[in-house]
Amino acid sequence: MAILNVTPDSFYAGSRTPEAEAIERRVREAVSEGAELIDVGGYSSRPGAGEVSPDEEWRRVTLGVETVRRVAPGMAVSVDTFRSEVAAKAVDTFGPLVVNDISAGELDPEMLSVVAKYGVPYIAMHMKGDPKTMQSQTDYRRDITTEVVDYFRRRTETMLAAGIRRENIVLDPGFGFAKTTEQNYELLAGLHRLCALGYPVLAGLSRKSMIYKVLDATPAESLAGTVALGWECLRQGAAILRVHDVREAVDTIRLFEAYRQNRR
Which of 216, 133, 145 is nearest to 174 (CA)? Predict the structure, then answer.
């Protein structure tokens, strides 16, 4: 999954593509490097991110999805939004796509019914609070992996009861969302437990603080760390890598598959 941030304030400056020319350049690059899915976001979810109006988010999402549909008509697209109105308008306007919701339907109570109505794939992520408040909500009663796995046991039951088909559900543990650096690594070490629930798991840790803080580096200097942790996510069973750097992720997946096929 290639990240397409139609935003001026995403945490990694190199991923910001708020203007039409930069968006098209990014889409062409992602396609040429082997992306299988492009994730269009119009609302930065970095820690402390400010509010974006629904109209402005929709303007950005429209710009991104229109570009993908024009440049790469056969490319799968996801819309990174927690707003049901944006998700519904995207499907109505552009046809079937994936909804990628950082709140697993908790920030907008209408989201699950909208996803069920349209019958589209749904990526549900674990987070507490919202982007502005999440990093003040890192207290958990038990170990982080148990909390996240139990959360998704409950939440998937709610999704299924809302009419979302089981085969349309993808789980995202939410690396970096309401989690300390130490908790992120605990969660990474237990990722196989989330995969054991039987749903595809998306791992999104590309260039995040759990990498650059440990390395005493910046997001721009965190590609090697992203590749290393991406391999570990694959080893534990992750099905999708959400990344800024498509070529390197594709190479990682190819090498991992070769390793898995030939190990004794």
Answer: 145
